[in-house]
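User: Hi! I'm working on a homework problem where we have to compare a predicted structure to a textbook description. Could you give me the structure for the chain below?
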Amino acid sequence: MFIDYAKVTISSGKGGDGASTFRREKYVAAGGPDGGDGGKGGDVYFEVDNDINTLVDFRYKRKFKAEDGKNGSGNNSYGKSGQDLVIKVPLGTIVKDAETNKVVLDMSEFGQKELIIQGGRGGKGNSHFATSTRQAPNFSQKGEPGIEKEFILELKLLADVGLLGYPNVGKSTIISIMTEAKPRIADYHFTTLKPCLGVVKLDSGRSFVMADIPGIIEGASEGVGLGHQFLRHIERTRILLHVIDVSGSEGRDPIKDFETINDELVKYNEKLAKRKQIIVANKMDLLQDENKYEEFKTYMEKQGLEVFGVSAATNKGLKEVFNRVSTLLDEIPVEETEIVEKVVYRLETPEQSKWDIVKNAEDEGYVLCGPAIDKLLSKVNFEDNESMQYFQRMLYKMGIEDRLKQMGIEEGTVIKVGTWEFEYYE
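Assistant: Happy to help. Predicted structure tokens:
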């Protein structure tokens, strides 16, 4: 089974909570705070695994989570950090943010390992909050939450050359002759149901990777005949060998076949349609009228395309095609995948420092909201007076109190923060 698309949900680990404890020993009359910090939540990585060829594992498991950090404890004991999560993917996997559909990682190098989501930091124990005036703080910080994100994984084959064309035009025969790949071959449509990779080794000692892309038909750019799943595999190729049944053995017009396939390329990706193409006019051994081939060749050359007449069945003309391909590959540079932005998702992003104050129309109160507020709430214990004092100081430092005054807040006005409500007094 060949799976080249998956949608997964991935979460980093939550940071452990800091401890709120005090030193208790027999001969120590007034032991101070000794609460240890919570451990850091586990990070999430993607790593290329050379032994994996498909995304089939993600068909059965779609949710992944790194380990949470452990809570701190007394005697200044730090909690253990959560174990990182390493997700193995095949070479050539593209990682997209499912929300924006933008590429954030391109796993196209052997042994590549990339951080994608950072785990939450552990909360500080109460020993951190001791001062000369507050010698016995009875509160600690909660650990930061982990981050949950949805990603799209797409596998795009890393081939130098892609075989393109309608079903049953001879692509599988060509790749079986020129490489050691063993695709299924038969005289019916869609024999090839998954892309097939092979290494072409020439007499000159040169070699390159070639992919037999399953037959693309009219409507492929819109998903007809699994078109989207097949078309994505030729996006990385440098040369397209467009195989056409020049004999018209199935009653189709070779020129119309060429135009139809290229129209699908334009609809799917205009950049892909401009990729270097070589026309491989196959089934010359079945050609009844030489004039038809000459007309076909003249038409293609007017389009600026090179044409090679071959017979895959008799192995005639294939060496000339691939010697030419080898020469062109030396001239055409490898094109990198366009990554909009390489992203590591972490809690400290500018977006998560934002907060807002909204006037509540129902009771003329105010609502504090935004990522910065959510982050602050995760660190506060509202059932502890000292923790509440910390919360109030943070609101002042963040400029929220000044903003409320500018908005005309009056004493006794209700302020909603998350699920909590407070009355404002100076």
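For your comparison, note the following. Confidence is low (pLDDT under 50) at residues 183-193, 217-228. The two ends are 67 Å apart (CA to CA). Good luck with the assignment!
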